């Protein structure tokens, strides 16, 4: 297997005194561009697929679908967790769906080729049809896998900074939440948003829209000065509970209950929400009462799959469970609001003759992401889309 632990430095970026222009509007509706984005960003990034608590026994597996690609993560008989392309080596049949336990073997539902759960080929049905087959060369194709503090990541093509380099930059913050102890809270939810994937990710990265777009959050929390924007498309920040309680009963109750989580943290380190954003598509959120993963996955140029996974710390008190239930309801409320916002923006970017305004300083992470797009896909620097059928050629010319 190739080396998936690429040595790419992750370092803090200086604060912006001003930010530049956003991406041109044509980049939010171009089919040819989506192909380049998928290759540059998604196939070469680490994607969180789940948690080791979902892979306790040999044969336990999780599948992860990303547009045209799918990965199986499975614990082998030898207790090692591995990741493979979710396709049979014979005729590319998709092998598994969802998650569960496959026992000691993975069998193709088309012709019955069977693989050990370590990926090696166990048996070929009607082997007389393959007189010269060498089973040792036809195991499942392994892809990059890393486990960080219980979180399981895969990388289909192996590009980008390593998980250790990226999340290691905030290891002290993550350590406070002891995520390796978590258990699944509920089944992941999947929503289809009618927008370009970049609009969903732009929206996730900035807090400028919170006072208007998310009044519930604005009443409960405020941004703090704790936070850093790093090179390589990674930033983090904290939200702290407001001293003034919300007048909305559910929100106020959450604020009132917050002290009951103090026992999980060193003095002065609790009562905050930690939010990490990893380009191109992962929002990692640590709350005192739960963990949430917000994942943006393209399905088409104006259709995006939003996957939301939640996990819980162990041994919660009754009060902490009450907090957790309120938080889950708030997450649903906020995601519904974001869906409405970005779908309306998708309609807006298609408006003929529209000229976009400037980005705010509070949208600096959006600008940094757009700069990464321009760096990796230089054709996006053009103010107008190339003629249909020439985008890939023009991108190569501009490299």
Query: Helical segment tally?
Result: 10
Distance between the termini: 29 Å
Under CATH, the topology of the largest domain can be stated as: Naphthalene 1,2-dioxygenase Alpha Subunit, Chain A, domain 1
CATH superfamily of the largest domain: Naphthalene 1,2-dioxygenase Alpha Subunit, Chain A, domain 1
- Main CATH class of the largest domain: Alpha Beta
Widest β-sheet, arrangement of strands: 11-17-16-15-14-13-12
Rounded mean pLDDT score? 94
Give me the CATH architecture of the largest domain, please: Alpha-Beta Complex
SS elements, strand count = 17
What's the helical proportion of residues?
25-40%
What pattern of helices and strands is seen along the backbone?
Answer: HEEEEEEEEEEHHEHHHEEHEEEEHHH
- How large is the radius of gyration? 22 Å
Class of secondary structure makeup: alpha+beta
Beta-strand residue percentage: 25-35%
What does this structure look like?
There is one protein chain. This protein has 399 residues and is α+β, with helices and mostly antiparallel strands. It has two domains: 12-43 and 171-399, Naphthalene 1,2-dioxygenase Alpha Subunit, Chain A, domain 1 (Alpha-Beta Complex), CATH 3.90.380.10; 46-158, Rieske Iron-sulfur Protein (3-layer Sandwich), CATH 2.102.10. 26% of the residues lie in helices and 27% in strands. It has helices at residues 31-42, 163-168, 171-175, 197-205, 210-213, 215-220, 249-257, 318-349, 364-376, 391-398, and strands at residues 47-51, 60-66, 69-75, 81-85, 99-101, 105-107, 114-116, 121-123, 144-148, 151-155, 183-193, 221-230, 234-241, 272-278, 282-286, 291-300, 303-312. It has a seven-stranded antiparallel β-sheet. A four-stranded antiparallel β-sheet has the order 4-3-2-5, with no helix packed on it. It has a three-stranded antiparallel β-sheet with strand order 1-10-9. A hairpin with a 2-residue loop joins strand 2 and strand 3 (69-75). Helix 4 (197-205) crosses helix 8 and helix 7 (249-257) packs across helix 8. It starts with 30 loop residues before the first helix and ends with a helix. The relative contact order is 0.17.
């Amino acid at each position: 297997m190739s080396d998936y632990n690429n040595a790419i430095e992750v370092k803090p970026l200086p604060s912006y005194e001003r930010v530049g222009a956003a991406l041109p509007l044509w980049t939010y509706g171009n089919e040819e561009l989506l192909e380049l984005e998928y290759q540059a960003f998604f196939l070469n990034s680490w994607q969180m697929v789940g948690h080791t608590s979902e892979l306790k026994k040999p044969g336990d597996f999780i599948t992860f679908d990303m547009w045209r690609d799918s990965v199986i993560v499975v614990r082998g008989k030898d207790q090692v967790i591995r990741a493979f392309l979710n396709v049979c080596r014979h005729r590319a049949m998709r092998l598994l769906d969802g998650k569960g336990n496959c026992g000691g073997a993975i069998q193709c539902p088309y012709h019955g080729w069977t693989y050990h759960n370590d990926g090696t080929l166990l048996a070929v049905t009607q082997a007389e049809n393959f007189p010269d087959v060498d089973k040792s060369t036809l195991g499942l194709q392994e892809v990059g896998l890393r486990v960080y503090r219980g979180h399981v990541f895969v990388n289909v093509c192996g590009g980008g900074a390593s998980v250790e380099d990226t999340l290691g930059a905030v290891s002290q913050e993550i350590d406070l939440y002891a995520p390796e102890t978590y258990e699944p809270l509920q089944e992941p939810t999947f929503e289809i948003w009618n927008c370009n994937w970049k609009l969903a990710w732009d929206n996730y990265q900035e807090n400028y829209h919170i006072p208007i777009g998310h009044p519930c959050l604005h009443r409960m929390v405020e941004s703090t000065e704790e936070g850093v924007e790093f090179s390589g498309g990674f930033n983090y920040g904290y939200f702290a509970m407001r001293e003034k309680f919300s007048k909305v009963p559910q929100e106020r109750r959450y604020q009132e209950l917050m002290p009951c989580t103090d026992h999980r943290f060193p003095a002065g380190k609790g009562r905050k929400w930690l939010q990490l954003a990893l380009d191109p598509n992962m929002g990692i959120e640590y709350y005192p009462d739960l963990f949430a993963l917000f994942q943006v996955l393209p399905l088409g140029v104006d259709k995006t799959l939003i996957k939301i996974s939640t996990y819980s710390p162990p041994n919660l008190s009754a009060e902490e469970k009450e907090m957790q239930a309120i938080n889950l309801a708030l997450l649903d409320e906020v995601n519904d609001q974001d869906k409405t916002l970005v779908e309306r923006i998708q309609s807006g970017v298609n408006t003929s003759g529209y000229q976009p305004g400037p980005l705010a300083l509070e949208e600096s992470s959006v600008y940094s992401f757009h700069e990464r797009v321009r760096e990796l896909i230089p054709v996006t620097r053009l103010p107008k889309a190339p003629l249909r059928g020439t985008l890939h050629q023009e991108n190569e010319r501009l490299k």
